[in-house]
Specification:
Layout lengths: L20 H8 L3 E5 L2 E4 L1 H20 L3 E2 L5 E3 H7 L1 H4 L6 E3 L5 E4 L4 H8 L10 E10 L14 E11 L2 H22 L3 E5 L9 E8 L5 E5 L6 E3 L20 E4 L6 H7 L9 E8 L2 E8 L6 H8 L4 E3 L2 H8 L15 E4 L9 E7 L2 E6 L1 H4 L4 E2 L19 E15 L1 H6 L2 E3 L5 E3 L1 E8 H11 L1 E2 L2 E2 L10 E5 L5 H16 L4 E4 L5 H11 L3 E5 L1 H4 L3 E6 L5 E5 L3 H12 L2
Parallel strand pairs: 3-7, 15-17, 17-20, 27-28, 27-29
Antiparallel strand pairs: 1-2, 4-6, 5-6, 7-8, 8-24, 9-10, 10-21, 11-12, 11-21, 13-19, 14-15, 14-16, 18-19, 21-24, 22-23, 25-26, 29-30, 30-31
Helix pairs in contact: 1-12, 2-6, 2-12, 13-16
């Protein structure tokens, strides 16, 4: 391709609203343009990169027996209502009515529709099956951000496995885990598999693949000693050791005028440090006011509450609901003596004594509380947010918390969707049974963004050869010298004939502009052809990832570049 004819609208300055490397560099490099918040157009360079990402995904899916389909983006409401997700995904899904006033939605994912196709399966002999597609999704994200990291419209590869029993599902889940590891390796990103919450997808097990990056939105908990890794929505940890001071007798009430927070109570009384307090949160769960207890120096991870209780019908209680049930406002709440409300406590409170908590009277607290003696706990449930330095649940070593980008997610769905939509087969005994399903997703644009976040420098993007828009660029130092142009054209033809995707920079621009643009868009190899080098029969080859430059005889350039690129292709 000739640069003079290509549409590569590079920019000298960063976009004013850029908040991440991929946003800044993909816009500056002419890969993408924003239409509106969370909606991006792929320009020619961006489309070439995305197509290569899709090719790698397809190759690895086909390798484990995947069969590609293409399902619609617009769905009728009925299957979503049958699975219960019509209401569960309220807010993020775009719903509308067609001209016949039938309820419709824009697909955020395709579990329901693939399951409907699976209802055509009738015998266990037709299983296992593995189907996938690369299709547009639309999610009405409240806060699109980070360039291609958090968008409203995107392309995702979602695949679905269908098996006769749990062991078959386990096998397909592991096949996907291995396929995803190969995909990310070929894309040039280091993805860490971590335990994760299944959220609205359902099922009992899921694994996210996370790439460490400050541009990410998720935190993962990692133990550097034993390798334990989990999203903070799922991560568990041991309780940090705390020595409680002895207390004789029943809890004692004391005045706390105007004190409404853990920090204020700790500042006012030396015996009420945060780790010695019981944090009491009021939530409405399934219409029932419920008290959630955890140590005062810990935060609630709400997703753990949702997963542990198995319901999305959860919200913080309103002030008037709390006062009506307990007689006090938030900041003075506690569970001592409470018998008329459900009480859920984090296991970190087990065995704790001489604790401080609200007395359910405004401006009054209790000290000397023995959790298991004074509080009627209905359910012990791990709901704490795991923190930096907490003991690893596996080996006890201090854990680390790292900011990361989610680049893939695989789920064991079980029979949730098959039961709701009637996807069954007859087994070898002639009995009808629901199909066991798995769901597996990778966002194409998000992986493009993750590659940029992982591989860039102060000059621009550093694409791995496998996904680079072009593998080599032949830079003509001056278009005014006939010998230089002729030599560059010859090298360009040789590279193209050898199967190297090559761009020739034949623009009437200064050499510095050409070099800067080639570095900005991140082409792996640059061949620089100029009068000075040709005078001694040489041209320069520069490797983008480390700037290594060598002079090579002009007749050997194509052979040298081809060998380097072929060695790096994945």
């Amino acid at each position: 391709m000739r640069w003079s004819r290509a549409f590569i609208p590079t920019l000298r300055d960063d976009p004013a609203d850029a908040e991440s490397a991929n946003h800044r560099l993909l816009v500056r490099g002419g890969f993408v343009r924003r239409l509106m918040a969370g909606s991006w157009s792929l320009l020619p360079l961006g489309k070439r990169v995305a197509t290569k990402v899709e090719r790698i995904i397809r190759e690895e899916m086909d390798r484990i027996g995947g069969q590609e389909m293409l399902l619609p983006v617009v769905h009728p409401a009925d299957p979503w209502k049958k699975t219960g997700r019509w209401d569960d995904v309220e807010g993020i899904v775009v719903k509308f009515q067609d001209r016949k006033e039938s309820d419709m939605l824009l697909a955020i994912t395709h579990e329901e529709i693939f399951t409907l196709i699976a209802t055509e399966l009738s015998s266990y002999r037709q299983l296992p099956q593995l189907w996938y597609h690369l299709q547009t999704k639309f999610r009405d994200e409240p806060r699109p951000r980070g360039g291609l990291l958090r968008v409203r419209e995107f392309t995702m590869k979602d695949s679905y496995s269908f098996d006769v029993d749990p062991s078959g599902l386990d096998a397909q889940f592991e096949a996907h885990r291995e396929a995803y590891s190969r995909i990310f390796e070929r894309l040039g990103v280091e993805a860490i598999p971590v335990h994760a919450s299944s959220g609205t997808m359902g099922g009992k097990e899921s694994v996210e693949f996370m790439v460490e990056s400050e541009a990410g939105e998720d935190d993962i908990v990692v133990c550097p000693n034993c390798g334990y890794a989990a999203n903070t929505e799922r991560a568990t940890s041991g309780a940090p050791p705390v020595e409680d001071e002895p207390w004789e007798g029943e809890p004692e009430e004391f005045d706390t005028p105007g004190i409404r927070t853990i920090a204020a109570l700790a500042d006012a009384f030396d015996f009420a440090s945060p780790e010695r307090q019981i944090k009491t949160l009021a939530y409405v769960v399934g219409g029932e006011l419920t008290l959630i207890l955890l140590p005062g120096d810990h935060e609630l991870m709400e997703q753990k509450l949702i997963d542990g209780l198995g319901t999305f019908d959860i919200r913080p209680a309103h002030d008037d609901e709390i006062v009506a049930a307990l007689g006090a406002h938030p900041g003075s709440l506690g569970a001592v003596g409470v018998r008329h409300l459900r009480v859920i406590a984090d296991p970190a409170l087990r065995g704790r004594f001489n604790m401080v908590t609200g007395a359910n009277r405004d401006d009054r607290h209790l000290r000397g509380v023995d959790v298991e003696r004074d509080i009627a706990v209905d359910q012990w449930l791990g709901v704490r947010l795991t923190r930096l330095g907490d003991p690893c649940i596996e080996c006890g070593s201090p854990v680390q918390v790292r900011r990361s980008i989610e680049v893939g997610h695989i789920f064991k769905l079980g029979t949730k969707y098959a039961e709701a939509l009637g996807a069954t087969v007859v087994d070898e005994h002639g009995e009808e049974r629901e199909i066991w399903m798995g769901s597996y997703g990778i966002g194409v644009g998000r992986n493009v963004a993750a590659i940029v976040e992982s591989s860039h420098d102060d000059k621009g993007i550093v694409w791995p050869v496998a996904v680079a828009p072009y593998e080599a660029v032949v830079t003509v130092v001056t278009m005014e010298d006939a010998a230089t142009v002729a030599a560059a054209e010859g090298i360009y033809r040789e590279l193209e004939e050898a199967g190297i995707e090559t761009l020739i920079d034949d623009r009437a621009e200064r050499p510095g502009v050409k070099f800067a643009d080639a570095e900005l868009i991140g082409i792996p190899y640059r061949v620089t052809v100029g009068p000075k080098g040709l005078a001694s029969g040489e041209v320069e080859i520069t490797r983008r990832r480390d700037g290594f430059t060598e002079s090579v005889a002009s007749g050997q350039v194509a052979e040298k570049v081809v060998a380097a690129i072929v060695a790096e292709r994945r």
